[in-house]
Amino acid sequence: MSKSERSSRKRSPPIRSGETVDYKNISLLCGFISKRGKILSKRMNRLTSKQQRLMTIAVKRARILALSPFVNNES
Predict the structure, then answer these.
(1) Closest to 50 measured CA to CA, from 27, 23, 21
(2) Contact indicator for 21, 28 with CB cutoff of 8 Å
(3) Helix-, strand-, coil-residue percentages of the chain, each rounded to 5
(4) Non-local CB neighbours of 33 within 8 Å, separated by 6+ positions
(5) How far is residue 75's CA from residue 56's CA, in Å, rounded to a whole number?
(6) Which of 4, 12, 32, 62 could form a Cys-Cys staple with 68, CB 3.0–4.6 A?
(7) Within 10 A of 29 (CB to CB), how many other CB atoms are there?
(8) Which InterPro entries does the record cross-reference, listed alphabetically (predicted)?
(9) How far is 67 from 75, CA to CA, in rounded Å?
(10) First vs last C-alpha separation in the chain
(11) DSSP assignment string, 27-38
């Protein structure tokens, strides 16, 4: 498979049209956090800049309200 074929491949969007980026939607937020509890980069998440900003704010709010952990110490 050449480079041009890979880049033209249609990918499914990580955030569906009906889903909202909200700190209460923990099932959505868990997909954008690594196993160690870090927020994944925009490149890994395949998000736009605006979506990444909203996702970061939502994750931080969920952490402050203790809906998701700051660090995941499970090995």
Answers:
(1) 21
(2) yes
(3) 45, 5, 55
(4) 39, 40, 59, 68
(5) 24
(6) 62
(7) 21
(8) Ribosomal_bS18 (IPR001648), Ribosomal_bS18_sf (IPR036870)
(9) 21
(10) 36
(11) HHHGGGB-TTSP
> What token pair was written down for 41?
């980069």
Write out pLDDT tens, residues 22-75: 999 988 898 899 888 899 999 988 888 998 999 999 999 999 998 888 887 665
Query: Tell me, what DSSP letter sits at residue 9?
Result: -
32 within 8 A of 59, measured Cβ to Cβ: yes
pLDDT band at 18 (very low <50, low <70, confident <90, very high): confident
Q: What amino acid occupies position 35? A: K
Residue tagged 């110490």 (tokens):
73
The residues with which 33 forms a beta bridge, in sequence order, are: 39
Cα–chain center distance at 49: 12
**Sole residue written with tokens 């909202």:** 20
